[in-house]
Design a protein that fits this description.
alpha/beta, PfkB_Carbo_kinase, disordered C terminus, about 325 residues, Ribokinase-like, globular, PfkB_dom, ATP-binding, disordered N terminus, 11 helices, nucleotide-binding
Amino acid sequence: MHYPNSHPEVITFGESMALLIAEGGKGLEYTSNLTPSFGGAETNVAIGLSRLGHSVGWCGRLGDDPFGHRIYKMVRGEGVDVSHASFTEEAPTGLMVRENVAGRSSVYYYRKLSAASKMTPEHLDEEYIAGAKILHITGITPALSPSCAETAAAAMDMARRHGVKVSFDPNLRLKLWSVEEARKVLLPLAMKADYFLPGLDELKLLYETDSMDEIISKLGELSAVSIIKGGDDETYILENGKLSAVPYYKVEHVIDTVGAGDGFCAGFLAGLLKEYSLEEAVRLGNLIGSRVIQAIGDWEGLPSATEIERLLAGKAHVER
């Protein structure tokens, strides 16, 4: 457990929402049962890092309502420092509802004017950010409102002023804004990052091209190391103009793909904190991502450090 007033290794912030999942593989229109949980890219990454043994803090705005208090307690229960999260009576906690029918997941958002969308740079604690090794930001937060976009940029600037590395996953969500709107905000933010973690499909949309050569050329204009998720069978690393690749871990039974990218980010950042090489860090990210898609839920399948050690050592699970 990480306590208030500590300086976590990683800090992230953004919206965490209440989540209701339709049970039994039925669509929302026909199900009689909804399983409660919560989700948010940043809390998913925070929980993943905490389970891997790293100290991490999550900052966010929650509604002063039952959903908000449930999220706060559950994130805290996963060992994440929530001392800089806050509640407001001015807006509700966001909600998302999800169905998984015939292997295809669909998400419906009820988050407009949510508590998280009211975040401003004044809600940031620069001293708190300055004490971290890595600040992790996603492109979901700036999609919520202009003030959230300002807050994401301000957090990055604070981190850079204090030598804190910035990790940025664009996490393009076209249900929140158009690609044209996203492009104007996300590409400038990528310029502020030390580690840029896009998906290949996202890059095709952001850079308006299907050409891998053009994408690599555009990424070469950034000062960041780019980690490109979503290749056919591998994750790409672009560092100082050199492109390399790390193969995926094969998975026989994919149950739920939601949260895989966040699991990858948690594994990759954990690798950086352990001072792994980029290839080793990406390999760990690939492994964590492969575990997440074998469980239902945004973060429930994130493995512990002990589980990862067993997997890497090839030890079999003992049931009894």
